[in-house]
Amino acid sequence: MLDLFRTRRMWRPRQELRDSYDVVIVGGGSHGLAAAYYLAQLGITDVAVLEKSYIGSGAAGRNTTILRSNYKTPEGARFYDASVKLYEGLSAELDFNLLFSQCGHLTLAHSDRAMFVMANRAEVNRLNGIDSQLIYPDEIKKLAPAMQVDNPHAVYPVQGALYHPPGGIIRHDAVVWGLARGADRGGAEIHPYTEVTGIQRTNGRVEGVETNRGTIKTKVVLSCTAGWSSLVAHMAGIQLPITTHILQACVTEPLKPLLDVVIVSSQMHVYISQTDRGEFLMGAEIEPWTTYRTQGTLNFLQEVSRHTLELFPQLERARILRSWAGLCDLSPDYSPILGETEVEGFHISSGWGTYGFKAAPIVGKTLAELVATERTPDLIAPFALERFYEDRLVSELAAAAVSH
Ligand code: PYC
């Protein structure tokens, strides 16, 4: 075992870092590890995943574990549906239990306008073969009997919901470790605590990456970081239309099982689930200012508690155990920026807002196909960076509870 890693909480690499690879992946989170895993499946194994901290230390370890595909646009819905389908088979494929619970996902509607928007989303989803339907308070009560649906004093009365049965929650750390094991078994090298400090280019194509552990020659770089994607792209001379914000979440102390469906409200900006440990897991809206400072705020705790208590007043005395914040890169249309760039050999997975974790397997698979075939897969063609120059936006504005 390498000395550098002996004392650290982390994945232990089997090999020394070499000075050349066919493919270098920047970021050892769910996207980077999925890309390494699917590249190995296509026979591309001379691959290094470089992670500046421990694997899963970024957005992959700081989300609220929700998977779903009930998006607003046909492009988004089809893409996330392919991801949920890959997730469905991944525990068996990786021989690693990812604890995927397809418990169903309810997006509450609190106004006539919201009911109209949910009906529209249900229609787009169904046209793309995705199970989504508009339901009314009686059905909501059956799915979430512990939730207060008929509160006459509610600030946000519940009029209905978009019900999405395939949605649910999955263990994020299991996803990271399962993919890391799969990539490692396939032959990829995973190097934690290896920070990329520069991208070398000649005549508009990638030649290598500089790291805190030396320079590596490569013709292909996949940038798979969340939070840092604009900085990594900048190293390659590319300006991304991205702003970086924090999103916060928290959990209560463990409680008896009370809720076995994911509850989301786009108007209250709250999403709530109960983990397999019994904790209520709650998140709120994205903070409107740009920052890399992942410190929690009192305002978040107040707002998330106020809105959760309107739906679950029985949690009044539950204590909050811990909270965290993750970095989110927002693109102008709230859809990802995925695939090739103007620098030959430099491909990106960026601009995920708060949707990145759900997309990990399909990002890995499509980026691997792009590298193997040198052709952009149809599923990700709508998310190319050029769309911002060609007026082809794919607006996922308000397709989540996070005020984007
Ligand atoms: O889009 O499902 C979502 C989501 C949950 C938390 C943040 N985004």
Rg, nearest Å: 21 Å
Order of helices and strands: EHEEHEHEHEEHEEEEEHEEEEHEEEHH
Compute the separation of the termini in Å.
45 Å
- How many individual helices? 9
**Main β-sheet, spatial strand arrangement:** 5-6-4-14-15-16-13-17
User: Given the C-alpha coordinates, what overall shape results?
Assistant: globular
Uncertain segments of ≥5 residues (pLDDT<50)?
Answer: none
**Global structural class:** alpha/beta
The overall strand count is 19
List the helices and strands and how they pair.
Elements: E1 23-26, H1 30-41, E2 47-50, E3 66-67, H2 74-94, E4 105-109, H3 112-127, E5 133-135, H4 137-143, E6 160-164, E7 168-169, H5 172-186, E8 189-191, E9 196-202, E10 205-211, E11 214-217, E12 220-223, H6 229-235, E13 243-252, E14 262-265, E15 270-274, E16 280-286, H7 298-311, E17 320-330, E18 337-340, E19 346-350, H8 360-373, H9 387-390
Pyrrole-2-carboxylate is lined by residues 64, 66, 68, 271, 283, 354-355, 400, 402.
What can you tell me about this protein's structure?
The chain is α/β, with parallel strands linked by helices. 27% of the residues lie in helices and 24% in strands. Strand 15 and strand 16 (280-286) form a beta hairpin. Helix 1 runs parallel beside helix 5, helix 1 (30-41) packs across helix 8 and helix 2 (74-94) crosses helix 8. The structure holds pyrrole-2-carboxylate (PYC).
Features of this protein?
single chain, 404 residues, alpha/beta, 8-stranded mixed β-sheet, 6-stranded mixed β-sheet, 9 helices, binds pyrrole-2-carboxylate
